[in-house]
Amino acid sequence: MRSAPALLFYADTHSSRDLLYFGRFECHDPFIALRHEGKKIAVLNALEFGRGLKESGFDQILALEPLLAEVRPAGSGPRPTPAEIIALLAAKLRIRRLLVPEEFPAGLLERLRALHLDVTVAIGPVLPEREIKDAREAGAIRAGNRVAAAGFAAAEALLRRAKTSGRKLLLDGTPLTSERVRLAIEIACLEAGGLALDTIVAGGDQACDPHCRGTGPLRPGELIIIDIFPRHAATGYHGDMTRTYLKGRASAEQRALVEAVAAAQRAARKVLRGGAISAAVHAECVKVFEARGYQTKSTPKGAVGFFHGTGHGLGLAVHEAPRVSAPVKEPLKTGAVVTVEPGLYYPGLGGCRIEDVAWLTDTGHKLLSKHPYAWEIA
Amino acid sequence: MRSAPALLFYADTHSSRDLLYFGRFECHDPFIALRHEGKKIAVLNALEFGRGLKESGFDQILALEPLLAEVRPAGSGPRPTPAEIIALLAAKLRIRRLLVPEEFPAGLLERLRALHLDVTVAIGPVLPEREIKDAREAGAIRAGNRVAAAGFAAAEALLRRAKTSGRKLLLDGTPLTSERVRLAIEIACLEAGGLALDTIVAGGDQACDPHCRGTGPLRPGELIIIDIFPRHAATGYHGDMTRTYLKGRASAEQRALVEAVAAAQRAARKVLRGGAISAAVHAECVKVFEARGYQTKSTPKGAVGFFHGTGHGLGLAVHEAPRVSAPVKEPLKTGAVVTVEPGLYYPGLGGCRIEDVAWLTDTGHKLLSKHPYAWEIA
Predict the structure, then answer these.
(1) Considering its fold, how many domains does chain A have in total?
(2) Interface pTM (ipTM) of the complex?
(3) Domain boundary among A71, A99, A126
(4) Whose CA is closest to B231, among B182, B196, B259?
(5) Which of A100, A183, A210 minimises the CB distance to B106?
(6) Which of A19, A89, A260, A295 is most buried, with most CB under 10 Å away?
């Protein structure tokens, strides 16, 4: 029987969340890591070595510098490349075959093969276990959502303090913009121990483009989507929540839209558990929208209605496995953490999305997000 | 004569600063981009298409959805892969050969080759012109450093307000920590229009490990290194500056250390220009330190003295080409932007680093950073 290939990473943990998951160690410069015969091994330079010993989840940490000297003494030629170090390690550890993730750098792959190493590129995830969260991870995601909730509280405070003046909102005499609300959210998140990047604060028709972050003055009587997905600084795990607001009094159509989205979220949550088919959870949202007459269709100016998935996995990345959407016919796994975020978007009327986070059990799920749903702000 | 290969990217612009430079367009999901016969071409999905047309520097933007349908109509099989889309594009555009960067994903490389595309992995940078900054870029880096300066002002305000109480610093009755100073810096940077990640606020012996971000109480009479490298939100370019502080009165040894680092920075700046040999600029710092008796050496607990390079290129990434350091015997290029950041580190005495940013001209350089050097805070 051939032994299993050793799993090889060469990345920084900003680019590879798999490597962060694997070693539980943040490192912003690329480094070599291996899984060999069940052991997790990292090669760290002198700047990172001590921190790695103290903080990381690696079973063994090798110092880079002696390996460099073993390949080629300093001064006797160019500095050894990562490929040469990996080849030395493979020889020392008697590794016959290597498996690398799909995102592994192509240049290094070619150099390893030029050194006659037997390297296979994986198809699909190399750490599928990352999809299943344990209690520690669920707690970290809950902490990420607490950070998000601090952001919503800050946004609500600004909207409450703002005064309506014609078609504008004024705060302390100047227009309340997406940018000002975003800044207040980002500061509140920092103070709560997290980092909110690319927060969405989008009002009116801007909110109908789910990738638009929002810019310029916010208006009274418009639906405003706020989507906050901060990274919890202490653990690296993300929260991800969305609330929709309106300053002033909503119209009947706006109220019906928001109620439909809330109802869709409740319907999805009713069937959301480990073992539920992903597409079936999504279909619950679609059913609610269709029953209430909200059509989803393409128009020359883009899609309207409910044209994105119901949710996605959440963890060390904001988007990770699994997806909760129509094309996915597989069951969701117990222990997965997913967002539940139906939305409706109609230019002219506006957009609404409500997003919470669920940790799946065999019989249902536990919510990992908590913040009120009150949305009309007087 | 064979025509030049088309340059192919498949990345998000968080992971690939080259792609961000190439298209001047932020996109957080991976997308296909090509340079073919001098034209910059991107393939964007419906969510990004409109923004790409409006904001990006691409000459041509192709909609992804019609290409997907051309490969395989929806419902008639699995969703087409990026490799299949690239193969379709290559056929349409009559591209015979492709060149991909070293960081290109290995899995996609293999799939392209399985589709019989002729793909070469580049050795070295695919966009070497990125090293040379034009006036727009220099202005953006200067704006990044203005954000950093706002961070220093916030840190200084806290240190000024802090009261010495025995071996502690108290602010509003509780210990002043690295974490509190970092939070104040991060908030000030956000308010100034930038995002400061991983800011270093390290006092005492912590500052002697240049990768230590700093943690716990700051102490009176200790050197405190603060290194801020924010991303200017409007442009994506970074600032990168370091100042060293001390709350209270410095000892003669501390004063001599700080003066030596300042003198080394001045010496390096005297010779810093386009055409200067990188190693020779670094050697100016080394000369100053040696003349003043500051030894650099390895100890069982790590290196002491001046054990890092004098500087690095700065732009869309915090670290990019060129390096200003001993092993680099090539001349620096006019138009490059580099940091100048000598430092000295001696556990027991403390660490000092002073960092500014220079844009190289044929005869010298223009400073792109500006903040006072006053460091003893009463």
Answers:
(1) 2
(2) 0.91
(3) A126
(4) B196
(5) A100
(6) A19
